[in-house]
Write a structure and sequence with these properties.
CATH superfamily of the largest domain in chain B: P-loop containing nucleotide triphosphate hydrolases
Helix content of chain A: over 70%
Largest sheet of chain A: none
Largest sheet of chain B: 11 strands, mixed
Order of helices and strands of chain A: HHHHHHHHHHHHHHHHHHHH
Shape of chain A: globular
Structural class of chain A: mainly alpha
CATH class of the largest domain in chain B: Alpha Beta
CATH architecture of the largest domain in chain B: 3-Layer(aba) Sandwich
CATH class of the largest domain in chain A: Mainly Alpha
Strand content of chain B: 15-25%
Strand content of chain A: under 5%
Number of helices of chain B: 8
Number of strands of chain A: 0
Structural class of chain B: alpha/beta
Order of helices and strands of chain B: EEEHEEEHHHEHEHEEEHH
CATH topology of the largest domain in chain A: MetI-like fold
Largest interface: A-B, 19 and 23 residues
Shape of chain B: globular
Radius of gyration of chain B: 18 Å
Number of domains of chain B: 2
Oligomer: heterodimer
Radius of gyration of chain A: 23 Å
Number of domains of chain A: 2
CATH topology of the largest domain in chain B: Rossmann fold
Number of helices of chain A: 20
Helix content of chain B: 25-40%
CATH architecture of the largest domain in chain A: Orthogonal Bundle
Number of strands of chain B: 11
CATH superfamily of the largest domain in chain A: MetI-like
Distance between the termini of chain B: 47 Å
């Protein structure tokens, strides 16, 4: 499934010749991803440290909130940022009122801002996990040896950070490398185009498939290298639960207390204000949504549910095999999609399928397939440790009783894995619901999914309808996640 | 499946990164044998090979002259109880025992009655609706034995399933094992590190030490005059020569 589109891309590319514009696109892609990764991880450290050593009301909520941007449709996050930092956003209105010149959110700094908004929480969660993995004895020992906070940092915290940060940075870098929706809205033009966006433009506007394929090949190479780096460097569990466990980190007083408060306060504002803006802006529009929005919502739900079903079945099969028979090429196959991106796979499928049927007819099936492929690695990584534990705990008993096939699935696997399956399915559904990538390549005037409709409404300056549709999209994404997750919890034995 | 019931380990060799165990002996039908020896000697590994979880490096496991290689664990003529995890925690005792009749748990009314009777027989009448976490360790062991009773396979492998129980409870469970084995006319192969267990249950004992599982010999004679390897394992406390 992954290799066929890549093969098509490679064949069609037929000799790489990058123009000056392509090179500047490549440079922009690398620069924005590097900046986004450095800023996200750099800011994540003080935030995670503050969260690790302070107890305050609402801490649990804030930690949960850090998980939200991963589920948030990118287009909605961008909209929230526009409401705050955009031309007529709150910030610029304040500046104008104070007689100061306005700031523009478009271009490199806008793209980086959006990426930090989307990935700072992810990085903070990874770093927080690192803090919580430090054994309590280390901190007690530091206290027993009357370390100053600086000593503790040097001997206890810095070694942990050295282990966690490269993986966190590589993960964010890999995510930003394949950024499409952010660049589509906030970037553009010769100076702020990512490779993904350039692929889209080559297919959609120039109808130059050879050029698109060449770019896709470059993107696939870069993405593969970055994904590999992230895979090797990143700690295994990215979405681990239980992050509100208290950590016995000595809560240093003095200026550190103020700095921690500041870090938490600023981060909470940075995350909450754009989200609040989406809700506030969306509420009035919600009652008067155009019919096209409802049709798109229905299509999106269909896409999300179908790809979730696909991913669930595929993941279960793969995970069972790998858990029982050990690692091997299946493990690799399940992680391979990480190396690609929606637009790369989309371009490959576009080349493969165009002779067979018009692209707009294939939009939904292709979107379902690509979404399923791209979320498969996440679901796989979530389920694999649990499936391994299940096999270790009960595999031999089930074997000795001759439980196999459907009986084993019904009586052992599903009841014991319902919780992580529900969580993974919720994640898949939310990501698929909010995805704006390959659908943009294929969809015609009709047949768009909800994220694409939001983007089109924004591009057409129909602000109120766009805001309403965005709110609907958020509610559907989070609702699907909640429904699957709660379903899994309820079914778990 | 129920022929004479002879277990033969034919020139068996098991190798696992640096570890090696050989065995070459026969166990007559209906025998109760204890496997005793220092930890790490390979007692559990030998059971795992007989049960079909591991393939031997060399040699064969024969049941009534039939090579069991390639037969999956559930299809072998045996039941096995592990050190722990003998019950599925999310299923009730009735369901756990019912798995011994049908691995898909589609139990007819007659099957249900047999499950209830088996629970009754091991002293768990009325507890069938509970889950393993809601009963004591001894009761969980009884439920596992009720399933052994229903499966009624001619060979019973016990991998120290009662090691975590107190001495009185363990004796009680061993008596129940003997009862179940008698009812099902099963050959028993039981791993233990306690010579008292061996004396209590077993007619013969297999000493597993120094890379070999020795041929079974009568338990009383072996323990009364232990060879050097067993003497080293037992220590002075259980050494009757002292």
């Amino acid at each position: 499934m992954v290799i066929a589109p890549l093969g098509a891309v490679a064949l069609r590319a037929g000799g790489l010749s990058l123009s000056a514009a392509d090179l500047s696109t490549l440079r922009f892609t690398l620069v924005q991803a590097t900046l986004s990764a450095a800023l996200s991880v750099g800011l994540a450290v003080p935030l995670a440290r503050a969260l690790a050593r302070r107890r305050f009301p609402g801490r649990g909520f804030l930690v949960t909130l850090l998980g939200a941007p991963f589920l948030l449709p990118v287009i909605v996050a961008v909209m929230g940022l526009l409401a705050v930092f955009g031309r007529s956003g709150a910030l610029n209105q304040g500046l104008a009122a104070a007689g100061l010149p306005g700031l523009s959110i478009y271009g490199l700094h806008g793209v980086v801002l959006a990426h930090v908004f989307l990935n700072l929480p992810l990085a903070a969660r990874m770093v927080l996990q690192g803090w919580q993995a430090i054994p309590a004895e280390r901190f007690r020992l530091s206290e027993a040896l009357s370390f100053t906070p600086a000593d503790t940092f040097r001997h206890v915290e810095r070694p942990m950070l050295r282990e966690i940060l490269p993986g966190a940075a590589a993960t964010v870098f890999a995510i930003c490398l394949t950024s499409f929706a952010v660049a589509l809205v906030l970037g553009g033009g010769p100076r702020a185009t990512t490779l993904e966006l350039a692929i889209y433009q080559a297919v959609r506007f120039d109808a130059d498939l050879g050029h698109a394929a060449g770019l896709a090949l470059v993107q696939a190479g870069l993405g593969g290298a970055a994904a590999l780096a992230a895979w090797r460097l990143a700690p295994p569990a990215m979405f681990g639960a239980g992050l509100d466990r208290p950590v016995p980190v000595a809560a240093a007083g003095g200026w550190r207390r103020i700095a921690d408060g500041l870090a938490i306060g600023v981060a909470a504002l940075f995350l909450l204000v754009p989200l609040g803006a989406v809700v506030l802006a969306g509420l009035p529009g919600l009652t008067a949504l155009p019919a096209s929005v409802w049709a798109a919502a229905l299509r999106s739900i269909l896409v999300a549910l179908t790809s979730t079903a696909l991913v669930s079945v595929l993941t279960l099969v793969l995970v069972q095999r790998v858990a029982r028979a050990g690692d091997g090429w299946l493990n690799l196959a399940a992680t391979l999609p990480l190396a690609t991106s929606g637009l790369v796979l989309g371009t490959g499928l576009f080349i493969l399928l165009r002779p067979l049927a018009p692209p707009s007819m294939l939009a939904l099936p292709v979107t379902i397939g690509v979404n399923a492929l791209l979320t498969l690695p996440f679901a796989f990584r979530l389920l694999l440790p649990q499936a391994r534990a299940l096999e270790a705990d009960h595999g031999r008993l089930a074997d000795s009783l001759g439980m196999a096939g459907v009986s084993r699935l019904r009586l052992l696997t599903l009841p014991r894995l319902a919780r992580p399956i529900g969580f993974a399915a919720g994640l898949t559904a939310a990501l698929s619901m909010g995805d704006l990538g390959v659908i943009a390549l294929f969809a015609g005037e009709a047949g768009a999914t909800l994220p694409l409709v939001v983007q089109r409404l924004m591009a057409a300056y129909r602000t109120e309808a766009a805001a309403g549709a965005a709110l609907l999209l958020v509610m559907l994404s989070l609702g699907l996640f909640w429904a699957f997750d709660a379903g899994g919890r309820r079914a778990s034995a | 499946m129920r022929g004479d019931g002879v277990l033969r380990l034919d020139d068996l060799m098991i190798e696992q990164d640096g570890f090696r165990l050989t065995a070459d002996w026969t166990l007559a039908a209906g025998t109760r044998a204890a496997l005793i020896g220092p930890s790490g000697a390979g007692k559990s590994t030998l059971l795992a090979v007989i049960a079909g979880f591991l393939a031997p490096t060399r040699g064969r496991v024969l049941w009534d002259g039939r090579d069991l290689a390639g037969t999956p664990p559930g299809a072998r003529p045996l039941s096995i109880l592990f050190q722990d995890q003998n019950l599925f925690p999310h299923l009730t005792l009735t369901q756990n025992v019912g798995l011994g009749l049908r691995p898909d748990l589609r139990l007819a009314a007659g099957d249900q009655a047999r499950v209830a009777a088996a629970l009754d027989r091991v002293g768990l009448a009325g507890l069938g609706a509970r889950r393993p976490a809601e009963v004591s360790g001894g009761q969980a062991g009884r439920a596992a034995l009720a399933r052994v009773l229903l499966r009624a396979r001619p060979l019973l492998l016990l991998d120290e399933p009662f090691a975590a129980l107190g001495p009185a409870l363990k004796s009680e469970m061993l008596d129940l094992v003997a009862e179940v084995a008698t009812a099902t006319q099963a050959t028993v192969l039981m791993v233990t590190h306690d010579p008292a267990d061996a004396r209590r249950l077993a007619g013969v004992t297999v000493l597993v030490a120094d890379g070999a599982a020795a041929a079974p010999v009568p338990t009383a004679a072996l323990l009364d005059d232990p060879p050097p390897a067993l003497r080293a394992y037992l220590g002075p406390k259980d050494n009757p020569a002292r």
